[in-house]
Amino acid sequence: MNEVYAVLDIGSATIELLVGEIMNSNLHVLFSKKVPSHGVKKGIIEDEHLLVNDIKAVVQEANEFLDGEIKAIGLTIPTIRSKLYQSNSTVSLNHEAKITKDDIVRGLKLSTKFKRSSEEEVVCVIPVKFNGDFGISNQPPIGESSRNLIVDTLVITSQKCILYPYIMAVEKAGLEVMDICINAFACAKEAFDAVYLQEGAVLIDMGYKTSTISFYKDGYLKYLTVCSVGGYNLTRAIAQNLQISMNQAEAYKIKYGSLDYTIGQEDIIHSTELPDGRKDYTQKDFAHILEEATVDALNVIKEKLQIIDDGSHYETLIVGGGGELEMLDKVAGNVLEGPVRVYRPDIIGIRDMAFVSAVGMIFYMSDRAKYLGAYETSVILPDISNTMAVKFKGLTKTKDTKEKTGRFSRLLDTFFGEEE
After folding, report:
1. What pLDDT is recorded for position 340?
2. Which part of the chain is the SHS2 domain (predicted)?
């Protein structure tokens, strides 16, 4: 049976809902939708009621389209106020015992037992390397014989004041949160292969008002920061120059968003009435306005990248809805002084930079299923042959999901709870 996953990516400007089926390591899109987001500003939920309504609406649309029911989702949360820890743990095994999934999970749990702020909550624990009598492996060594298992991990935390409101909003929309990851790592899961993660690469996720910058090397997410520039800066530059509303400026950016001066360069796209006469703006003028704003934003990002300036010219990938500009890679390469690629999923139905995180989250969960064991139902779809409901694999390990506190999601309570 193929795996079916539902993923919700909540941003300040848009919400992406993606339902996909993993078939032979490839993703088949069953449903995708991008809708405006309300109630979230710079990654912080300011109006839960508005956000809950948005989630309910897009999920209802998906249920009607699929003629099914989404019961639980994988959730990506903003990277804001996240912290990174490189950790490890050692699991003692019986003499020459074969490693099981339970041993892997135990190792991941143990790697979270280190001192951190009481305001932090573990979001995800990502295995990087496994060591034992079998040698060193990047893949879970299930079935291998060893006297002990050493697990090197990347532990990502978020501030509770950021994380819990997202979990609560999803649950109030009638869904269960089955797995969580920060947006930056989910994007990397889709955009980078193993070579990038080992040799080093930079990922820039351009959102509406903020951009997340992350650096990967030796299999780890090494550096993570957020800066206050994004698609909003470009829209504002258009609005100020053309003296129009932000809504109209956003519509122009979507329609004419190119940094190429040669496309319809003399075509008039807007006219503004000024006290001394009418000012016509051509496509070329529009490209100049966008380029100036883009260069300013990229210079802010460049300053943040100075911390990893070790003399190497790492390739940079740009993702996110705020980066949907033709020839952005060329302008960014000039500013950042290195190779830059703009990345979007090459999948029918979601060839949109805003869906990179959602796609990556599906593959992230599919990989986790290999060592987390049995999964609960996430999506119920009708069986085409006999109209009976078929329950597909879901997004989390089947365990005791009794809540110890109303503010913990079931995932956090079970997977990262204390060892008994």
Report:
1. 94
2. 5-191
What's the CA gap between 367 and 369, in Å, rounded? 5
Q: How many residues in the chain?
A: 420
Confidence (pLDDT) at 284? 87
DSSP character for 111? Answer: T
Least confident of 47-61, 155-169, 194-208, 362-376: 362-376
Which DSSP symbol is given to 401? -
- Cα–Cα distance for residue pair 415/235, rounded to 1 Å: 42
Residue 411: what pLDDT? 53
Residue 89 in any domain: the answer is: yes
- Sign of CA pseudo-dihedral 216, 221, 222, 223: positive
CATH of the domain at 123: 3.30.1490.110
Question: 183 near 166, Cβ under 8 Å?
Answer: no
Which tens digits make up the pLDDT trace of 343-377? Answer: 988 888 788 889 999 999 999 999 888 887 655 76
Cα separations in angstroms, 259 against 140, 288, 410: 45, 7, 46
